[in-house]
Amino acid sequence: MPIGKVKFFDEEKGFGFIAGDDGEEVFLHASAVGEGDKVGPGTRVEYGVVDGRRGKAALSVRVLDRKLSAVRASRRPVEEMVVIVEDVMKLLDSVGEDLHKGHYPSNQMSRKVAQVLRKVADDLDA
């Protein structure tokens, strides 16, 4: 069975598209998604393919990574991420200044920076 990521999905209209790992794009109807599963952009899925009237369509879609799709669905808007990334850059600049002066930041500061970087990385990777 092919594997891919949901490229687009409109819950209201009940359809979207899957970009297969093989490069092929297939139509996705809500009725093909397993009961209790939710899909959104970036959700990794396994699916069957059938030739429909308008081209290839997904059949028997199974979500592969529920945690990832839940995280992706709750992602921050891009506008918020721009501000967060800019703040992280300022934070890293101050750490870089300390390092140029020949010393590491305090343990407390190091922990805070690491925590912020992990969180931002999770938001970007989702």
TrEMBL record:
Pfam families: CSD (PF00313)
Signal peptide: none
A GO MF label: nucleic acid binding
Gene Ontology CC, one term: cytoplasm
Compartments reported by the entry: Cytoplasm
Residues covered by the CSD domain: 1-63
Regions that span the bilayer: none
Protein name per UniProt: Cold shock domain-containing protein
